Amino acid sequence: MTETPTVAVFRPDDDRIERATELLAELGAEPVPDPMLAVEATDAVPRTDADYVVFTSKTGAELIAAAGWEPTGETVCAIGPATADALRAEGYAVDLVPEEYTSSGLVAALSDAVDGARVEVARSDHGSPVLLDGLEEAGAYVHETILYRLVRPEGSGESARLAAAGDLDAACFTSSLTVDHFLEAAAEAGVREATIAGLEDAVVGVIGEPTAETAAERGVDVDLVASEATFERLAAETVDAATDGE
């Protein structure tokens, strides 16, 4: 514990890592920006024969606009406010945002309406099966379009080396894939076991139960799941937990 905790953040290697770094600094932390995700666009667009189309990220919103997607009367759903804002910024109307900003929250919001409906899920190649399975169980005919692939950027892994050396006070994981890529980077550096051991003395914060489950399966102890599925809440609660007297 320290008054100025060193906090690793793994947001995608774009403006999101910059904003996350600024936020952590504003919260009184020393940020360690270590992007674990980079976007490779597929140039695909959602099918046009759906009743509902579901978007799960800001990136997806930007990519469909760049690819020229035009809605044809579908009910447009966003997993949370950041995705909804990105869609609106690109000129799309958003019809539904769930109360809980997760895949299970989307399922809960749509389950009473999609029996017999065609639902298009447009997202990355690493989306949670919770969304597809839940919609199918609700009676929907589900089709998934992969808008982009998420890969680990070259040169990532500074935070893993810091954890292995005992020099990391906290880490903010925003998806199961950030956990996997973080541990892959540690393995490449030959410090995977030491990194996991180092995290035992750090505060590990995550967004969502799926990320918590992935971390646990990989041997990483999770200290907190953000009370809301936003990076802002995750950052604030992780910094609080890693700061003396909190």
UniProtKB/TrEMBL annotation:
GO terms for biological process: uroporphyrinogen III biosynthetic process. SUPFAM superfamilies: HemD-like. GO terms for molecular function: uroporphyrinogen-III synthase activity. InterPro entries: 4pyrrol_syn_uPrphyn_synt_sf, 4pyrrol_synth_uPrphyn_synth, UROS/Hem4. Pfam families: HEM4 (PF02602). Residues 20-235 form the Tetrapyrrole biosynthesis uroporphyrinogen III synthase domain. Transmembrane segments: none annotated. The keyword Lyase applies. This is Uroporphyrinogen-III synthase. The lineage of its organism: Archaea, Methanobacteriati, Methanobacteriota, Stenosarchaea group, Halobacteria.
